[in-house]
Amino acid sequence: MSAAMTETPRPSRGGRPRDPSRDSVIRAAILQLLAEVGYGALTMDAVAAEAGVGKATIYRRWRTKQDLVVDTIAELNRAEITPPDTGSLEGDLRSMLRSLVGVISGPAGAATLSLLSTVPHHPALAEAFRAGPMGVWRHGFDEVWARAEQRGEVRPGLSGSLTAEAASALLVQRWLLTGERVDELYADEVLEQVLLPLIRATHAPG
Q1: Cβ distance 176 to 113 under 8 Å?
Q2: What dihedral angle (degrees, nearest 10) is formed by the CA atoms of 144, 126, 99, 86?
């Protein structure tokens, strides 16, 4: 086994300050490689080659492969999720669900699928998912619910309810379990046929 395949920590190196633009390129390379080869076959050498940077650039940022992947997952979706403010709950939910479709269909979605069998064996990865993408999406939907309450579209207390959990559940279930299409048309169907009727039945203002 080559040195590049091991998880032996390397000391942080000094030198020039980190370039944030390189961080984004390196994270994009990590997602691409995770989707292609999975966590087990991922190497620091491969990340450096895919990103077009030297190995020293990688090791200045992350000491091990796990550090590198955990950091990437922790930052996942932060740039993509800006809670919309369309002026209505229906518009906000449609925008959020379509954003979720975009993530599922892109490199982040493919990388996530490749990590599913790995996460239970790596607590740091599991925590990165909880604090990273899961937390980002939960916060985004919480803002949507809060604005709907302020506009008087729903009763208080929707955030954290079973209805709130259902907002993305059908998309995620289809993506992870069935392999069927998850596109904007499906997201709109979920919104119009399931989510909005459920909200009207259980959380409509009195």
Answers
A1: yes
A2: 10
Please write the tens of the pLDDT for every residue from 139-185. 999 999 999 999 999 999 999 899 999 999 999 999 988 888 899 99
For 93-116, the DSSP string reads HHHHHHHHHHHHHSHHHHHHHHHT
Question: Which position has the token pair 């809060």?
Answer: 146
C-alpha 145/C-alpha 155 separation (Å) is 10
Q: What are phi and psi of 54, to 5 degrees?
A: -75, 155
Place of tokens 């490689």: 33
pTM over 0.70: yes
Q: Which residues make up the CATH 1.10.357.10 domain(s) of the chain?
A: 3-74, 89-203
- Supply the DSSP symbol for 192: I
Among 169, 183, 19, CA closest to 101: 183
- Give the other-Cβ count within 10 Å of 123's Cβ: 9
Query: Which amino acid would we find at residue 205?
Result: P
Query: Domain spanning 3-74 has what CATH number?
Result: 1.10.357.10
Tokens 């119009």 locate to: 192
Task: List all residues 6 or more positions away from 41 whose beta carbon is below 8 Å from its beta carbon.
Answer: none
The CATH number assigned to the domain with range 89-203 reads 1.10.357.10
Q: Are 135 and 129 spatial neighbours (Cβ–Cβ below 8 Å)?
A: no
